[in-house]
Structure formats: structure tokens, C-alpha cells
Design a protein that fits this description.
Substrate Binding Domain Of Dnak, Chain:A, Domain 2; Tektins; cilium; rod-shaped; flagellum; 6 helices; Helix Hairpins; 2 domains
């Protein structure tokens, strides 16, 4: 009866021993499971730390590369800004020479009609104006190209800075994650729900690396383009300055030669004017001498005619053509011819004086014209051009 009761109520010694054994085995299994899970968690944390360390090294490497490219791009931008300032100054430096050139061309239009012919100075001034306008137009296009390259450089710089910022943020997050452990993790960092799935925008390692490499490649392209543009602009600045200096010198030389020619011509005409004026004076003296000779011959003619008239009073038989009578008649004819000849020479002398006077007027007009041209070229133009100094840009 007792045995039946014990069996029915589960208190059999055999069952108790089995239960104890099963419980002990379960505890041992749990202990082993705990040990295994601890080891697994430790290995997982070590693997995580290794992955974080590898990721951080990758981020640090890319950051250094990005920082290097960013520094290079900042230097390129600074160099381009300086170069743009030089081009702007060069463009401003074209304004005054162009104004002076156009002023000289305008002033030279004020020359007298007799001197307003196209000469070497006009040709050089036209070349100078064309060159200055061409240089100004070229420098304006260069300024626009530099502005566009600066825009591209700043765009590449912005991409590098944004990438660096994101890399720094990711580095901070991963650094924090690498330092976290179960005891140090505060409650605010414990997940309140189940782990969230990866965002749809997650990228692969290759995409992650290629994104930064693409930014660096873009920056490298713009750096190459920027340096090519700088070399081109430097060459343009040197060549345009040399061209302008050469043309300004050519115009100045043409002006100086023209001034020398005009001075020589003016001096020659002044010498000729002195000779003409001297000849006019001599011609007047000659005419006065002729007029005196006419008067003297007229007096002699009157005397001879008076003698002839007086001889008509001789008695009839005495009025024959004796040698004295014939001599008086001959003298009257000769004196009359002399007077006529002298009067003709007086008229010719007056004609000569009129021609000399007209020549004097023309010479004086030419001298005045040369004086006017000399004032325009030597005083007005050259003084204005003294301020034109083409420096190296």
C-alpha cells in the first residue's frame, strides 16, 4: 500500500535521482552556454573593434588625401584670385593709353587742311588704338575665363569640404562605437526597440571609396585646368605688355621723327622767307633806282627837245640839218627809247615784287601751319603721351 502510494504520487527514489541528474545536467549545459556566449560576445566585440579599427584607418587615410587635395585647391584658388587681380589691373591700365591715343588722333584732326594728310604718325596711332582695343577685349575674356575657373575650383573645394565634414562625423561616430562596451554604455544609448534595418541609402565599400576618389579626381582635374589657365594667362600678360610697349614706342618714334621733319622744313622755309623779304627790299630799291633814272632821262629829254625847239628860231637859211641838228634829233629818239625801256623795267619790277610778295605770303602761311602742327605734336600729343608708361602686368 505504501509503495503504491509513493509510485502514484511521484516520489519514487528512482525518479528523484533522475530529476536531480537532469537538473544538474541542465545547469551544466546553461553554464557551458553562458561560457560559450561570453566567448562569442568577446570574439564578436573583438571582431567589431577590428572592423572599426580598419574602418577608422580607412577614414583617416581618405581624410588625409581629402585634406591634401583641399589644401591644394585652396592654394589654386588663392593663386587664381591673385592672377585675376593682375588681369583686372592690366585691363584698367589699358584705359589711360587708349584715351591718350584717341585724344592725339582728335587733336591731329585740328591741323590745317594743307597739313592734314595721312602720314606715318596717323598709321601708328591707328595701330596703337587697334592694339589697345584688342588687348582690352582679350583681357576681358581672360577675366571671364578666370571667373569661371574659380567657380569650378570653389565647387570642387565645396565637395571636398562636405566630404571631409561627413568623414569627420563618421569618424567621431565610429570612434565612439569602438570605445563603447556593455558596462560603459549609458541607458540613452541602449536600443529601445529591436535593431533598425539598414537605411535604403546605404552604400557599398567600393561606392564609399569611389565617392571620395571622384571628389579628389574632380579637384585634380580642376587643379590641372587651373594651372594650365594660369600658364596661359601669364603668357598673355607678358605678350600683351610687350606688344603694347612696342607699339607705344613705335608711335612715339614716329611722332619724334615727324617733329624733326617739321622743324627742319620750318627752318628751311624761315630761311627762304628771309631771302624773299631781302629780295623784296632789293627789288624795291631797284625800282626806285629805275624811277630815278626815268626822271633823269626825262629831264635830259626835255633839255634836248628845248634845244631843238630853240634852233627852230634860226633864220630861214640857217635852218638846215647840220650835224648838231641831226645829233639832237638822234638823241631825242635814243632818250625816248631809254625812257620807254626804263618804264618797262619799272613795270617788270612791280610784277616781280608782287610775285615775291605772294611767295612771302605762301611761305608765311606754310610756316604758320608748321608751327600749328608742331604745337599739336610736340606740345599737346607728346606731353599727354609722357604719362603713358606700360609696365609689365
Amino acid at each position: 500500500m505504501d509503495q503504491t502510494l509513493q509510485t502514484r504520487e511521484g516520489f519514487s527514489p528512482v525518479n528523484v535521482a533522475g530529476t536531480l541528474h537532469q537538473s544538474e545536467r541542465f545547469r551544466a549545459e546553461c553554464k557551458e552556454l553562458i561560457k560559450e556566449t561570453k566567448q562569442i560576445c568577446k570574439r564578436m566585440q573583438e571582431d567589431e573593434n577590428q572592423q572599426f579599427d580598419q574602418k577608422l584607418r580607412g577614414i583617416q587615410f581618405l581624410k588625409k588625401e581629402l585634406e591634401l587635395k583641399l589644401e591644394e585647391m585652396i592654394l589654386e584658388i588663392d593663386d587664381l584670385v591673385v592672377l585675376q587681380s593682375r588681369v583686372t589691373k592690366a585691363l584698367d591700365a589699358c584705359k589711360e593709353p587708349l584715351e591718350v591715343t584717341e585724344l592725339c588722333m582728335k587733336e591731329r584732326l585740328k591741323r590745317p587742311d594743307s597739313e592734314r594728310f595721312h602720314n606715318e604718325v596717323d598709321s601708328e596711332l591707328q595701330k596703337e588704338r587697334e592694339d589697345l582695343r584688342r588687348v582690352a577685349s582679350l583681357l576681358q575674356r581672360v577675366t571671364e575665363q578666370i571667373s569661371e575657373q574659380l567657380r569650378l575650383n570653389r565647387s570642387a573645394k565645396h565637395d571636398l569640404e562636405k566630404d571631409l565634414k561627413e568623414k569627420s562625423e563618421a569618424q567621431n561616430v565610429d570612434n565612439f562605437c569602438a570605445l563603447m562596451h556593455t558596462l560603459s554604455m549609458s541607458l540613452q544609448h541602449r536600443p529601445k526597440t529591436h535593431p533598425q534595418p539598414e537605411p535604403s541609402s546605404a552604400v557599398t565599400l567600393e561606392q564609399w571609396e569611389n565617392f571620395s576618389y571622384a571628389n579628389m579626381a574632380k579637384a585634380e582635374r580642376q587643379k590641372t585646368n587651373s594651372r594650365s589657365l594660369q600658364a596661359l594667362v601669364q603668357s598673355v600678360l607678358e605678350q600683351t605688355a610687350a606688344d603694347m610697349q612696342k607699339q607705344v614706342q613705335a608711335t612715339n618714334t614716329a611722332l619724334q621723327l615727324n617733329i624733326q621733319k617739321m622743324k627742319a622744313a620750318k627752318h628751311q622755309m624761315e630761311d627762304e622767307l628771309v631771302k624773299i623779304q631781302s629780295e623784296i627790299s632789293n627789288q624795291r630799291k631797284t625800282r626806285e633806282d629805275l624811277q630815278v633814272a626815268v626822271a633823269e632821262n626825262e629831264e635830259f629829254l626835255s633839255l634836248t627837245q628845248a634845244k631843238l625847239s630853240l634852233r627852230h628860231e634860226r633864220p630861214g637859211k640857217e635852218q638846215w640839218r647840220d650835224p648838231a641838228q641831226r645829233k639832237l634829233i638822234t638823241d631825242v629818239h635814243k632818250i625816248t627809247e631809254h625812257i620807254n625801256q626804263l618804264q618797262q623795267e619799272v613795270a617788270r619790277s612791280e610784277d616781280e615784287e608782287r610775285r615775291l610778295f605772294h611767295c612771302e605770303l605762301r611761305l608765311q602761311e606754310s610756316i604758320d601751319s608748321k608751327t600749328n602742327c608742331l604745337y599739336i605734336d610736340e606740345v599737346v600729343c607728346m606731353q599727354h603721351r609722357e604719362a603713358v608708361v606700360i609696365q609689365n602686368f
